[in-house]
Amino acid sequence: MLSLVDERLEVAPLVARAKWNTGTNIEAPKRETEILDRVASRAAEAGVDEAFARDFFQAQFEASKLVQRRLHRRWQKEERGPFDNPPDLAEDVRPVLDRLTPALIEALAEWQPLVEDPSVALYLEARAPELVTGDFDGEPRRVALEPLKTQ
Ligand SMILES: C=C(O[C@@H]1C=C(C(=O)O)C=C[C@H]1O)C(=O)O
Q: Residues in domain Chorismate mutase (predicted)?
């Protein structure tokens, strides 16, 4: 699970580059709704609670947008021009995220019974800093992992 979350988070800088070059909005609510619709039906098939799956994916979107916003802010300050050879959002980047979706749902099916277990929060505290990207003071990581434990 943590490696998959990390893989997904590592795509965010590529999204940021693609959008920087084309001036595309970081927010893509239609795209998020499409993903969540697919997630809901796949979650049902995999025996994952739909609300849990939606919360988890919404958190992945928020974490990705945090990274994108922080990078765009940095590049604005630097008055950065466009990148050479940027990835194409539709052709190169979104397909990578789409390939991760079913794998993440499988991981959620395994994780679901553990969410209430207090030792899971301890496990996340110990392992997440090693396994999940810690850019920007670890805030994207915290946001991405929040739904995987109870408060
Ligand atoms: C990654 C993108 O940016 C945002 C984050 C998304 C995600 O993490 O899947 C989806 C839509 C956008 O709000 C994107 O536009 O594809």
A: 1-72
Are 132 and 54 within 8 A, CB to CB? Answer: no
CA distances from 136 to 50, 114, 141 (A): 30, 28, 9
Alpha carbons 98 and 105: distance in angstroms, whole number? 12
pLDDT in tens, the chain (151 residues): 999 999 999 999 999 999 999 999 999 999 999 999 999 999 999 999 999 999 999 999 999 999 999 999 999 999 999 999 999 999 999 999 999 999 999 999 999 999 999 999 999 999 999 999 999 999 999 999 999 999 6
Q: Are 55 and 32 in contact (CB under 8 A)?
A: no
* ipTM for the predicted complex: 0.97
Q: Residue 118 C-alpha to ligand 1 middle, in angstroms? A: 31
**Which of 62, 64, 67 gets mutated to test ligand 1 (max ligand atoms within 8 A of its CB)?**
64
CA 98 / ligand 1 centre spacing (Å): 11
- Kindly give the distance from the C-alpha atom of residue 119 to the centroid of ligand 1, in angstroms, as a whole number: 31
